[in-house]
Amino acid sequence: MGFKRALQSIGGAALAGALVLGVSPVAQANDGARAAEWPLKAYGAENNLVWNHSTGKGVVVAVVDSGVRATHVDLTGQVLPGTDVAFGGNGWTDHSPQGHGTGIASLIAGHGHGPNGEDGIMGLAPGAKILPVGVGAGDDTHGNGDLASNVAEGIRYAVDHGAQVINLSLGAYDRDPGEEQAVAYAEQHNVVVVGAAGNENTSNPSYPGSFPGVIKVSAVDQNDNFWPKSDTSGITVAAAGVGIVLDGNGSDTQMVQGDGTSYATAYVSAIAALFRAAYPNLTAGQIVNRIIKTAILPAGRTAPDLDYGYGVASPDFTTNVPAGPAAGPLPQASGAPSDSSSSSSAAPVTTGTNASSGSSGSGMAIGLGAVGGVVLLVVIGVIVARTRRRGGNGGGGGEPAYPTAPHYPNAPQQPYQPPTGQYGGQSQQQPYQQMPNNLYQQQGQQPPRQQ
């Protein structure tokens, strides 16, 4: 999971050519949450390797989810008026008990809070804006219509209201024609669509992530390890998704921790926003091309890899990547832009230097550290609903550093244990509450198979 060339390897390889960031470096947060955001360190944000190039400013990312708690202190001013096709309103209410949509939004565009924004959750693209699109509460309550139709309507709304990136941290194993048509509509209108792989450890295709043109994201931990509960069908790239601290819905200051492809998807959406801001003349397909060509595979893997796809997505602004065809390297939905609309010569879906030879570094030796002084409400409820599910999950064993989300459909709740190593060992108890899951999946129900 390394960032080679100009970016620090997530696997711990040395960094070359650090640049001076126009934004002040992120200091360790007074409440300790920033120190626990290991993906910011892994992606080089805290070493001034990302935000001097782009913060995502001017880019709108639609979070098609449970709504977003717009009053959360880490998100004030970041959430545009949107919609809730399930319950009505402008999307500023998160209808899931634990705040799934709020958490996703915070990982993308949170700005933190407190003095100099040093407390709370900082997203990877803090200059971006969030367009909230509520499609259901996830607890078998879909409001108006069924969830699939809500998602399809939500995608179209996002496209029609200026979204340049659409985050879909949800999915199912049944292929819905309305969703597929909505995804095609997004691609036809130059929108990057990012979808979660799912957390069932199955090779069954899941949707909307498996629709043509969608970046489908699996999860990895901070030691370069593929998260074993990720689904493995048609993975495009992987991203950070284990031991993730994010905002919750219990109060305007709540933070929780969870594992899963939902959170990995949010980070890839943030990278897409960073690239869209930095390269405004690239089409959505060409942004996808850059994400693929700058992804890094661990040593010994060959792309496309079952677990990692083309590698771990990297906010790499220094690698020279030809724009490629307008449609990008992925299969396209019907009506998506053709290669003839591009001024660039066609390029195959190759992994490039980055993806073809990953770093053999020591892994991300970034511990969660001790986080104290944050008083949080108990997160209650498990989000369930028929065959639909969002992509967050639970972690490994040991005493909880942060309480984590249980696996779905019905795995036991097992809190995440930080790795041993330079910063590792058993960390102190952390006051983050548990992130329930089984999102859009009934407990005990086997995932439906593609017919």
From TrEMBL:
GO terms for biological process: proteolysis. Pfam families: Peptidase_S8 (PF00082). Keywords: Hydrolase, Membrane, Protease, Serine protease, Signal, Transmembrane, Transmembrane helix. The keyword Transmembrane helix applies. Residues 321-360, 388-451 are annotated as: Disordered. Residues 56-311 form the Peptidase S8/S53 domain. Residues 322-359, 405-451 have a biased composition (Low complexity). The chain crosses the membrane at residues 364-385. PANTHER family: CEREVISIN-RELATED, PEPTIDASE S8. This is S8 family serine peptidase.
